[in-house]
# Entry
Amino acid sequence: MIVTTTPQIEGRRITRYFGVVAGEAILGANLFKDMFAGIRDLVGGRSATYERELQRARDIAMKELQQRAQEMGANAVVGVDLDYEVLGQSNGMLMVSASGTAVFVEG
# Structure
């Protein structure tokens, strides 16, 4: 499946629009990850733990987006947008949502 942030796919003609599709992932950060990330913040550098969790959430949201588009009969998703939010008490949850337009392309 072709997934792109652009409104069209170069060299391909969109022949059918199925509508908006979305995928979401909400992950909780546990106490130990928070504690080690806090230490990393104090001494500087990147938090590899949070970067891995962010990547995992993004992968889940994108996979869900593609599955929903495929269920509609689409073979591509255009205009994909990724949004990131923190949720919950003391911002303990990370939400990643991916949305776009499910389409069928020729070529």
